[in-house]
Amino acid sequence: MNTESDILEQLKPLLVEVLGVRPDEIHPHRELVADLGAESIDLLDLTFRIEEAFKVRIEANELERQAIQQMPGGVYERDGYLTEEALVEIRRAAPELDQAKLVTGLRKADLPALLTVAFFVSLIQRKLSVSGTGEAHA
C-alpha cells in the first residue's frame, strides 16, 4: 500500500501542472485556493487528473456526501450555511482541513476553498484502500 509520502510525491507533479506552482511550494497543509492559487476549474481539472493517475473515482462533493451519510436524518445546510451537525461530521471526516475555519457561519459554497494538499493525499489513500489495489499508477 502506498504511504502518504508516496502519494504526495505522485500528486506533486499533478499540482505543478494544474496550478503552475513549483514543487517546493507544495506542502501537506497548504490550501489549494488560498496558498496555491487554485480556482474552481483547477479543482475540477485536478480531480480528473487524480482519477486518471491513481485509477480511482472521486465523486462530486465527496466530502459533503461522506458527512451526510454519517448524519442520517440530520440537516446538512440551512440557507446555504453548514449546520453545526454538518461541521462536526466534516471535522471528523477531514481532519486535514484547518479546523479553525470549520466554524459556525461557514457557507457550503466556501468549503472547497478549504481543501488542502493533505486532504487530497488522504482521499487518494482511502480510495486506493477501498479499490483494493493499494497501488497508485503514475
Spell out the CATH superfamily: ACP-like
The best one-word shape is globular
Structural class: mainly alpha
CATH architectural label:
Orthogonal Bundle
| Radius of gyration, in angstroms, nearest whole number | 15 Å
**Segments where pLDDT lies below 50 for 5+ residues?**
134-138
Largest sheet: 2 strands, antiparallel
User: CATH topology, anyone?
Assistant: Non-ribosomal Peptide Synthetase Peptidyl Carrier Protein, Chain A
Tell me the strand order in the biggest sheet.
1-2
Binned strand content: under 5%
Into how many domains do the coordinates divide?
1
Keywords:
Non-ribosomal Peptide Synthetase Peptidyl Carrier Protein, Chain A, globular, disordered C terminus, 138 residues, two-stranded antiparallel sheet
